[in-house]
Specification:
Elements: H1 2-7, H2 14-31, H3 35-50, H4 57-60, H5 63-66, H6 72-76, H7 80-90, E1 113-114, E2 118-121, E3 126-129, H8 130-147, H9 149-155, H10 162-174, H11 181-188, H12 195-202, H13 211-225, H14 231-247, H15 260-263, H16 268-271, H17 274-287
Antiparallel strand pairs: 1-2, 2-3
Helix pairs in contact: 2-3, 2-7, 2-14, 8-9, 11-12, 13-14
Length: about 290
């Protein structure tokens, strides 16, 4: 049944991938009699379903599954086959999930706090929606191009020297709304990159892949290139993807702790051995390098 859920997974949509992965984690936790882990998975699944708007026709057509699936108890009461069927019906709908209103992350950078749906910045904690804050950054960067020769050259596609990038970094950091590479990465949901590339992304001159795209593509590529992986090993890698997407970090020690010990009591050591274990560790560390 776990294999059936894995085969049903979406290849592209990150929200669907997360939903499918946590459904597999639910089954694994139940097989291992890890009641606490199973309940945590069930509560997460029900919370995701609760964000599906029944005003969308595609969601409304699955009302009979959506409404009971908003309860964690419902998930805990399903058989393995019923979980697989529910995933097949609900995972494709995850792209319609309504936005969360609760804070998702906090940055202690120059009095800037970024949350998933909004941004608070400045000494007076002025509040702006994330989209509006992006627009402020873009407007500031474009205006800077009119008074900074270095920024003007960057906007025209020129490669800048380290000194020119340093000059731009100072202007961004001391201006309003106080921009740093870390802030750009968080607000635009991209991996850390050289400042010039980040600014070209802001200006629409270069597209940087989003964090979910990078992580999903890397894990899926690893699985595709290792054709002898077992179902347990694939499940471990899916759990690794979910962990990295949620935490934006992973260390070697994490791989022998929860949630990886829900896949196997020994974590990575119980799923992979020898050179293969080192390869998985390198994969994990490379995701956040």
């Amino acid at each position: 049944m776990i294999a059936a859920v894995l085969r049903a997974r979406s290849a592209i949509e990150p929200k669907a991938i997360r939903f499918e992965t946590e459904a597999v984690e639910l089954l694994v936790a139940r097989l291992g009699a890890h009641d606490g882990a199973a309940r945590a998975c069930a509560e997460s699944l029900s919370a995701q379903v609760a964000e599906l708007p029944l005003t969308v026709n595609s969601v409304a057509r699955e009302r009979a599954t959506v409404e009971p699936a908003r309860s964690a108890e419902w998930w805990l009461g399903l058989s393995a086959g019923e979980v697989t069927n529910a995933v097949a019906r609900l995972a494709p709908l995850m792209k319609f999930r309504a936005r969360r209103l609760d804070p998702m992350l906090v940055l202690d950078i120059d009095d800037l706090t970024v949350i998933k749906e909004g941004v608070e910045f400045g000494r007076e904690n002025e509040r702006a929606a994330t989209l509006a804050y992006r627009e402020r950054i873009e407007a500031y960067v474009r205006a800077l191009a009119e008074r900074s020769p270095a920024m003007s050259r960057l906007a025209e596609g020129a490669e800048l020297s380290e000194a020119e990038l340093g000059e731009i970094a100072d202007l961004l950091r001391t201006g309003s709304p106080g921009i740093t590479p870390e802030v750009i990465c968080r607000v635009y949901d991209v991996r850390p990159a050289q400042l010039g590339r980040l600014l070209r992304h802001v200006l629409g001159l270069e597209r940087l892949a989003s964090w979910p795209e990078v992580v999903t593509r890397t894990i899926d590529g690893f699985i595709a290139s290792h054709t002898t992986l077992t179902e347990l090993q694939i499940q471990f890698l899916r759990t690794l993807r979910t962990f990295v997407l949620q935490n934006r970090r992973v260390q070697r020690a994490d791989l022998i702790r929860a949630p990886f010990t829900q896949v196997h009591p020994k974590g990575a050591r119980g799923v992979f051995g020898g050179p293969q274990l080192e390869e998985v560790i390198a994969l994990a560390e490379g995701l956040v390098a």
